[in-house]
Write a structure and sequence with these properties.
The complex is a heterodimer of chains A (about 400) and B (about 350). By secondary structure, chain A is α/β, with parallel strands linked by helices. Chain A contains 18 helices and nine strands. Chain A has two domains: about 130 residues, no CATH class; about 210 residues, Glycerol-3-phosphate (1)-acyltransferase, CATH 3.40.1130. Helices cover about 50% and strands about 10% of the residues of chain A. In chain A, strands 1-9-6-2-5-3-4 form a seven-stranded mixed beta sheet, with helices on both faces. A two-stranded antiparallel sheet of chain A has the order 7-8. The longest helix of chain A is centred in the first third of the chain and has 29 residues. Chain B has about 350 residues and is α/β, with parallel strands linked by helices. In chain B, strand 5, helix 5 and strand 6 form a beta-alpha-beta unit. In chain B, helix 1 packs across helix 7, helix 2 crosses helix 4 and helix 4 packs parallel to helix 5. The longest helix of chain B has 22 residues. The radius of gyration of chain B is 22 Å and the shape is globular. The interface between A and B is large, with 51 and 48 residues.
Chain lengths: ~400, ~350
């Protein structure tokens, strides 16, 4: 099992083999959760070479399962390292998932086989992805979300940051529903909204349903060249009632950071103190859609770019809400953009149901303020308790 | 009440001609009168063509003598080149609409008015919601061109429906129409040898097939559907995606420069590239068509993607990047990979 985990670790770094990742996470049964892949590929041009594989597969798999009809395969089954080196054995190993289903009695060879098989699957995946991108053969939803790009380029880039750099520890994912709309409300910090990306990664990779977090972003994001299209493609849309309600009613998982710029751009000495929670617009959106509100707390993001100063007049000149001065930025130039490797904890709290309120509740400011305060308090308390549990900023 | 005598403005242009032909083919409709300043190229069936300028009060006479009961106003034009300059275009759009509405207000026979408008009236800015509903207040009103004309036209139409509440007024806000015949600015834009895009932006665009546009106009003419409706195909395309689907070469140009480029292109009569279209190229626009489907009762047959693919096929766009070639290369590479593994295996 340990071996399998290792192989999964390797597989995660290789981009574009998300099928393998899904297989590892679900214990076989790859491609079952790829609505994007299935929907995106009407031509299905990638498949032919793979389609002929099943014919060669059964013979090979029995060989590596230990019947040893073939000397090399038997050796491969006994000697994991040898099979690692020899690409040939990859052919047998391509059924890593099916082997697990059969209860294959050769766990050592499994990891070795899986790797070279992975390589081919990964290459085929890369080629298929490139073809889809070159020919425009992918689907973008009405908010501009591009699942193909997110899963095959953005997520593989963020995954090492999530896992190895910030070593994010995610708790309470069982509070996030598998289906249906829900509003995740979190604290915002870190000068640059890296916390939003890490939350999205936590849900995409570690939630059993591998959901995409649709994020609500400030209008500034959509006015900045290069950032604007990218933001929409990875699932952002404008933080406004109309968009929030539309996404929630359609059953999406929506993330919102009600502190906005006040939270993400607050000075370092105010770290982990929640700012005002907007005007409670997120609560009325959730009430209108009748979806639960999930308070989420992020610890660790405050320390990635400690903002010790703010070049306000320059920021005003550039039309930005703030211009951070950190111990490294702008002194080290672009190097100063490398975040400090703090250790993160993301905790998803108990959902607050909203479906028990009547339809007109969204227009009751009293109730909206009360709910807003309740969620804010929850997050603040969780922040304190997580900070108590944390051993140090970096470990 | 079914329409009996219909007036169609703007019959010299493809959509107007199609509508007039379809109405003329309907035996239940007694008479179809087509109005435009230029004679239509196409044969409009039994449509009676009247060469008249809707900017001229003469239009009132046409309506009263023909006892028109349904007016289709399709003469709000988007392209200054076709109209002979921006000033003339504005006059046709705004003054023409005012004259037409004045004539309708006087005419006792008129019971229904259908106006073709555009989703450009919502403008295009980074501060707008992802989808515009008919009630969305745009953050930035269009400052010029066709979109501003359309905003003014809709204003006059609203005033008109206040003064004549007995007339059922349907305002149809069409998105970019693409089809085998439609010669829209977008079509000509995609026809450019190199398609200029705004550097650092990738707008969402929404399209409507000309067949759907025709069907919606006919439905609005035949039955009473008072109100304002967005009309667009389902789904969106990103501009970059559309260009890739068509296999066109593109050139990202920084925002300030693309304005100048647009001016040059306009002067060279290559393409009508106006300021509000530049905003569209940067920020995109998509509309919510729920009201069209539920209240108006029409579901577009073609999605945005299907419309675009059909357009590429009709238009026979010069592919610089052949999709089949891409597929073949991919299969070739995969095949060689497979062979390599086969050879290595004992």
């Amino acid at each position: 099992m340990a071996n399998r985990d290792e192989s999964r670790g390797d597989a995660q770094i290789i981009p574009l083999n998300s099928e393998q990742r899904a297989a590892a996470a679900d214990g076989g049964e790859p491609a079952s959760r790829r609505p994007a892949d299935q929907g995106v590929r009407p031509l299905n041009g990638v498949r032919p070479p793979r389609a002929k594989r099943p014919t060669s597969r059964p013979a090979r798999s029995t060989a590596s399962n230990g019947t040893a009809s073939n000397g090399t395969a038997g050796a491969g089954a006994e000697d994991g390292t040898a099979s690692n080196v020899r690409a040939a054995d990859g052919r047998g190993g391509r059924r890593a998932g099916s082997g697990a289903e059969h209860g294959a009695p050769a766990p050592e060879s499994e990891s070795g086989f899986a790797e070279s098989g992975d390589l081919e699957t990964a290459l085929a995946g890369v080629l298929a992805f490139l073809r889809r991108r070159i020919t425009g053969d992918y689907v973008v939803d009405e908010h501009g979300f591009d699942p193909d790009l997110t899963e095959h380029v953005i997520a593989p880039l963020l995954r090492p940051v999530y896992r190895d750099y910030f070593r994010v520890e995610t708790r309470g994912l069982e509070n996030v529903p598998d289906v249906g709309g829900a509003l995740v409300v979190a604290n915002h910090s870190g000068t640059l909204p890296v916390d939003a990306l890490m939350m999205a990664m936590a849900i995409l990779d570690h939630h059993p349903a591998h959901r995409n977090l649709r994020m609500l972003a400030a209008d500034l994001v959509f006015a900045v060249p290069f950032l604007a299209p990218l933001a929409r493609k990875i699932g952002n849309t404008l933080a406004c009632q109309a968009d929030a309600e539309r996404l929630l009613t359609a059953g999406h998982l929506v993330g919102v950071w009600p502190e906005g710029f006040k939270g993400v751009g607050k000075p370092f000495n105010e770290r982990y103190t929640l700012q005002r929670f907007g005007r409670g617009g997120f609560v009325s959106a959730a009430l209108r859609a009748g979806v639960p509100i999930i308070p989420c707390t992020v610890v660790g993001a405050e320390e990635i770019y400690p903002m010790i100063g703010n070049a306000k007049s320059l920021a005003r000149l550039l039309g930005l809400p703030y211009l951070p001065i950190t111990p490294t930025f702008p002194w080290l130039g672009l190097l100063g953009l490398i975040p400090l490797p703090s250790k993160w904890i993301i905790e998803f709290g108990e959902p607050v149901p909203t479906d028990s309120y009547p339809a007109e509740a969204a227009d009751d400011p009293m109730l909206v303020f009360e709910l807003t305060d309740r969620i804010r308090e929850t997050i603040q308390h969780t922040l304190y308790s997580l900070l108590m549990q944390r051993r140090s900023v970096f470990f | 009440m079914r329409p009996r005598r219909v007036l169609v403005t703007g019959v010299a242009r493809p959509l107007g001609a199609q509508v007039a032909t379809a109405l003329a083919a309907d035996p239940e409709i007694e008479a179809v009168v087509g109005v435009d300043t230029a004679a239509p190229d196409a044969d409009l069936g039994r449509t009676r063509f009247v060469r008249a300028d809707i900017r001229h009060p003469l239009i009132a006479k046409v309506i009263s003598t023909a006892e028109i009961d349904t007016v289709l106003h399709l003469n709000v034009i988007a392209t200054p080149l076709g109209a002979g300059g921006r000033a003339a275009m504005k006059e046709i759009n705004v003054i023409g609409t005012m004259q037409l509405l004045a004539a309708c207000q006087k005419a006792r026979s008129v019971t229904r008015l259908v106006v073709k408008s555009t989703t450009s009236i919502y403008g295009s800015s980074p501060r707008d919601p992802a989808l515009f509903t008919e009630d969305t207040e745009p953050r930035a009103l269009p400052t010029g061109g066709y979109a501003k004309d359309a905003v003014e036209v809709e204003g006059y139409v609203r005033g008109f429906s206040r003064r004549r509440p007995d007339i059922a007024v349907t305002v149809l806000r069409f998105t970019n129409i693409l089809g085998p015949q439609a010669d829209s600015p977008l079509a000509r834009y995609l026809d450019l040898p190199v398609v200029p895009t705004v550097l650092g932006f990738d707008p969402r665009i929404q399209l409507l097939h000309s067949d759907d546009a025709l069907a919606v106009l006919l439905r609005a003419t035949r039955d009473e559907h008072a109100g304002t409706f967005n009309v667009a195909g389902d789904g969106v395309l990103l501009l970059s995606q559309a260009i890739r689907r068509a296999g066109r070469p593109f050139l990202p140009v920084p925002f300030p420069a693309i304005g100048a480029l647009g001016g040059v292109a306009r002067r060279l009569r290559l393409v009508d590239f106006s300021a509000e279209q530049l905003d569209l190229l940067a920020h995109g626009r998509a509309v919510d068509t729920a009201r069209l489907k539920t209240v108006f009762g029409y579901r577009p047959q073609y999605s945005t993607v299907e419309t675009f693919d059909n357009f590429v096929r009709y238009r026979d766009l010069r592919f610089t990047l052949d999709h089949e070639l891409v597929s073949r290369i991919e299969h070739g590479l995969l095949g060689s990979l497979d062979r390599r593994w086969l050879m290595d295996s004992p």
